[in-house]
From TrEMBL:
<feature type="domain" description="Peptidase S1">
    <location>
        <begin position="44"/>
        <end position="273"/>
    </location>
</feature>
<dbReference type="InterPro" id="IPR009003">
    <property type="entry name" value="Peptidase_S1_PA"/>
</dbReference>
<dbReference type="InterPro" id="IPR001314">
    <property type="entry name" value="Peptidase_S1A"/>
</dbReference>
<dbReference type="Pfam" id="PF00089">
    <property type="entry name" value="Trypsin"/>
</dbReference>
<keyword id="KW-1015">Disulfide bond</keyword>
<protein>
    <submittedName>
        <fullName>Chymotrypsin-1-like</fullName>
    </submittedName>
</protein>
<feature type="signal peptide">
    <location>
        <begin position="1"/>
        <end position="21"/>
    </location>
</feature>
<dbReference type="GO" id="GO:0006508">
    <property type="term" value="P:proteolysis"/>
</dbReference>
<dbReference type="InterPro" id="IPR043504">
    <property type="entry name" value="Peptidase_S1_PA_chymotrypsin"/>
</dbReference>
<dbReference type="InterPro" id="IPR018114">
    <property type="entry name" value="TRYPSIN_HIS"/>
</dbReference>
<dbReference type="InterPro" id="IPR001254">
    <property type="entry name" value="Trypsin_dom"/>
</dbReference>
<dbReference type="GO" id="GO:0004252">
    <property type="term" value="F:serine-type endopeptidase activity"/>
</dbReference>
<keyword id="KW-0732">Signal</keyword>
Length: 274
């Protein structure tokens, strides 16, 4: 039986919901508000806390379905659109989007996205393969950008990226406990051919990120839909390269699978204009 599972969690009314996240960047430096600064030197297992507004495109998604509520992550790609995973919104009747901050209980802005503005890829297949696992949400009104609310650059076909990358979110930590504050961890970008040693069904529509070793940093339950971020090799701009899709059930093999954003650019642009 395949151990890979979707990386989202049910939100119980009396339960705190959170994510294991990650921050990594090129070389020995860390990304913060469009600047490079000294990277944390200690080893990241369950992630380290992000600084305030370090990733101003990060959003928390509370998805309502007839089976309950689920937590996922997402990324602001312009002033009215969020990029996330299709498996997050399967059966969704609405999505509460919270933006602007690190504390998921105290975000600057909240908006409700109704079903008609949830644009999951029409070719999504899951839960075994998670092909075309990508969604664009259209917000009911435009965001006002601030220090804590900014869009992230979207990977384009043919662009090259440094292999030292970053993940971030509010999902489970290695100990299986939720976190209230955004966490980050450094990961490596792997090609599909390398990733198939862990997940044989990975295709060119997907990329992998993680430490590549047992119990190393990776995304976990609750991080679905959040970004795999890498630095553009030409512009050095931090860019969303993947959206978190699935991984090993116990989050122990140090590897996660992400939808390859560049593969879906044409589709993403069509959804933005819908």
């Amino acid at each position: 039986m395949k151990l890979a599972i979707s990386l989202f969690v049910i939100v119980l009314l009396n339960c705190a919901l959170n994510c294991l996240a990650a921050v990594s960047d090129r070389g020995d430096k860390n990304y913060n508000n469009n600047q490079h600064e000294q990277q944390h030197k200690h080893n990241i297992i369950g992630g380290t806390y992000a600084t305030l507004c370090q990733f101003p495109w990060m959003v928390v998604l509370l998805i309502t379905t007839n089976k309950g509520e689920f937590l996922c992550g997402g990324s602001i790609i312009d002033n009215q659109h969020i990029l996330t995973a299709a498996h997050c919104v399967k059966g969704a009747t609405q999505v509460l989007v919270s933006a602007g901050g690190n504390d998921r209980y105290k975000m600057e802005v909240q908006m409700v996205v109704n079903k008609s503005n949830i644009h999951a890829n029409q070719n999504y297949t899951g839960p075994d393969l998670f092909q075309n696992d990508i969604t664009v949400l259209t917000l009911p009104r435009k965001l006002i950008f601030s220090d804590c609310i900014q869009p992230i650059a979207v990977a384009q076909p043919g662009e090259k990226f440094y292999s030292n990358c970053i993940i971030a979110g509010w999902g489970e930590t290695r100990a299986g406990k939720p976190t209230q504050y955004l966490k980050t961890a450094r990961v490596q970008l792997f090609l599909p051919s390398e990733c198939r040693m862990f997940f044989p069904d990975v295709t060119s529509q997907q990329v992998c990120g993680g430490s590549g070793h047992w119990m190393g940093p990776e995304a976990c339950h609750g991080d679905s839909g959040g970004p795999l971020m890498c630095f553009n090799a030409v512009t050095e701009e931090l860019t969303i390269v993947g959206t978190t899709s699935y991984g090993e059930a116990k989050c122990q093999n140090g590897m996660g699978v992400y939808e390859n954003v560049a593969h879906f650019v044409s589709w993403i642009n069509r959804m933005r204009n819908t």
